[in-house]
Structures are given as C-alpha cells and as structure tokens.
C-alpha cells in the first residue's frame, strides 16, 4: 500500500488568532462506538454515517496514513489554534490500522478505516476523494479539503464569508497545474486547500459529476477539477486578479451553463496567493498568511523540514 497523506489549519515570532493552551489541547467528546468499515461497495449513505460530530460551518476531509501521523497532528494543532474548527470537524479516512488506532486512542478522533481498499498508487486516492466529496455535498455538507501540510495560520472563514466569495460554490487556493490551463487562465484551482459548498447543491452536484467522470479518466483530481470548469465553459472575470504567485486579491469565474434555482450561475473564487501561499520562496510567510502550503518534495521529512525552519512545527505530546 502506498504511503500517503492527502486531504480532496504562526510565524517565527508570533501566533495569530490563538486560543489558550488549555483550550487548544482539550480533547473532544469520547470517540463514538466504531462504525462498520467502509468497503469499495460503500454507498453515499454509508459515507454519510461517518459525518463527524460537528459539521457547522464545514467539515474538513483528509486521507492519512501511518507515515504522516505527526504531520497530521501538527495540522490539527494549528487548525484548532487559529480557527473556530476543532478535531470534531474532521472527516478523516485512515489507510491502515495503525492510523485508526493512533487517532482514536491518542487524539480521540474517529477515523474511517480504508483497509478494505487496494491503493496501488495515488491515482486511486484521487478517485476516492472525488467520490466522497460528492456524497458529502449531496448530504448538504460544506467540505474543506486541506492537505496536512497546508497549515492554517488564521481562520479562512474570514475570507470565505466575504461578499461575492460567500456566493461561490468552489473557493480554492491557487496553483499552475494543469500547465496549459495555468498558462491560459493565469492560475488554476489547487486541490491542496479548497472549499466545496453545498449551497445550491443541485448545480454543485452537476459540476462534481463532471469532475468525477474526469477523475476516473485522468486519475488526478486537480487536473479534473480544472478540466471540469473548462469543459463546462467557465469564464474568468478579467477585472479580477487572475495572476498566480503575484496575486494579492481574489479571482472570480462563472459557469453560465450551470444555474441554480434562483437563476444564479455556478461561481468559483480563487484565493489570493499572498494569503494562501504555495510558492513560499517567492511569497514568504507573513502576518497576512492565512494558509501556508509551501511546496516541498513529497516525503514526510521534507515537509517537516520547512515547518521546523519556519517555526511552525508543534507536534509533541502536548497536542494529544
């Protein structure tokens, strides 16, 4: 089985929007009785049974494995410290029994066992993520997909709830992949930190249906979310900020072929790179940073390295 952490949350001298240490380390309610393991034949109803104890204003969906437990624990500490969300908002999926035991016994977080699945590569994970987010949105849940190395240094809901942004069905950090669309548009949607809203879920469901079909074909959810937008005819507002690394404001796009019951088109917001940062060498972490998702090679040690260097590594016994 591939070693992986995926999820389709402080600066060197200061912590922003922090809670007290007592609040931060307080465990949530006892993990409920174990629900049945999910199998490849699981229905949306099965996935919905695992919706976490708290789901307002959103749930945070992630896939984790035993090689990335400390990274995930660091993520949870910063998410709880710097936002209104807690571990009780996490919709965790565990690829192995070691992870299930760790989160349930050490952190009081229930984790969906995926041991019945065969994941020979990352591609199968991308397919699963797309399927599950579709089920959760269909159930009326707003879903944040946040990689464990996308560290929350401030509360993203202060941006999610801004005028115009609050009406968007997809609110995403920025990337440049797939490259042809990055060159054409200026920036693309990055699946390392993205919000899918259930508001107007009929049209959101249509978008996710197209995306899901493309994920099965391309075996990559970031390629597919952007190809879905292109396929459905997204038009980006050229008066909005469509740059990638240089962006310091929002980018907006609409898909007029998808219209909700209020005759409003499906809309997408790209978050500014100066606050939701991917290329940290060019956009250093600052007091404007909301989510730092600094690029690093895909190993636990490499990802831990930049966090330690930036003094954003807090995975220790106090976080249990």
UniProtKB/TrEMBL annotation:
Stored InterPro entries: Nucl-diP-sugar_transferase
Region forming the signal peptide: 1-22
GO molecular function, one term: transferase activity
Superkingdom of source: Eukaryota
Entry keywords, A to Z: Signal
Record has Signal as a keyword: yes
Pfam families, per the entry: Nucleotid_trans
Domain Nucleotide-diphospho-sugar transferase: 124-250
Name of this protein: Acetyltransferase (Isoleucine patch superfamily protein)
Organism of provenance: Ectocarpus siliculosus
